[in-house]
Amino acid sequence: MGKQYAILRVQKCKGAAIGAMQYHNDREPGKHANPDIDQTRTRLNREMRPHVDYEREVQARIDDGYSGERKVRKDAVKLVEGIVTASPEFFVRADDDKVRKFFDDAYRFCCDEFGESNMVHFTVHMDEETPHAHFGFVPLRDGKLSWKEFFPNKMALGKMQDRFYGRVGALYGLSRGEKRGDGEPAKRHKSVAEYKAENLRIQAELDEKTEQLESVTAELAVAKDALKTAQDAAKRAKDQVTEYETKLDGYAARFKKIKTDLAQIAEALSWRNLLKRFRDKLIEFSKNPICWNALEAGRDFESEKDGKRAERVLEKGAREKLKEMSQLEKEMDEWSPFDDVDGDRAVSKRLELERSGFTPGRNHDGQAL
Known about the structure:
Number of domains: 2
CATH architecture of the largest domain: 2-Layer Sandwich
Largest sheet: 6 strands, mixed
Structural class: alpha+beta
Helix content: 55-70%
């Protein structure tokens, strides 16, 4: 198994986005856009920083700690939103106690790093595919409200991630993500609209193939009933129908896998212009090998070059999936069970006539015609 990484990412959060963030994090009543939420597991989520209302508590912290002479601007960064998680393989192998301690240590790190009084929330989600924690803090330091007080440049972000690795990741045998290197020349990529159009076309073809599969299955059922009437052909017919059903199930499973992989690639690419959300989406789909490879290629997701590397991996993977789709369609076009089925029907009919005493080419008295 490859390296497993400790992950901590932060992003600016302004205005209405603060309320939207709480709606998602607290699983407030209503329809949530994320289809991966398993409501039967929501009870396992943990709120490690008690809160009631993000917006009011953010404002209360600013009122209490801001000492600047100027009025806080409406578009100021009032909340820094972050995510803490690890590679999916870590959570697969770790027991419940280890997972709980990992997030306990991550919470203590955030309090020390960003100021306990600045922390607004720290919510652990156990009801999605990969456990993770969302946290938020007011960027107040020495009376100043500013993102740059904490992260004046990319080097500061990198050092913060170094400290997180040293204090948390290393304790659990996790690796620190590879640091960003020089990027490659820019390359023209398909737009999100083009990917979605391609995906819609593939889904339409899948629907058509599904109808064909259902038709073949129905025809095979009829053939199965007909073949049972012939004793000599019954055993062979049963084996043949089982073989056909197995083959059809295999085609259906392969189509479903390709369709799911392509849909996840398209969904991930729809966030490519927002590096942090792009990274988060790849983490959600990390069981998809193509998304996992893109996640590794994107490294820290701190620059456009990081995102471009991840995009190239997704594009290459999509092309491979489309080739796989074409090959599967070719296989289905070349395979037709109906010739064998029709031949077995003819054998069955001849055996029925022979058992009834009728022989082709003779009259009812057995004399040649």
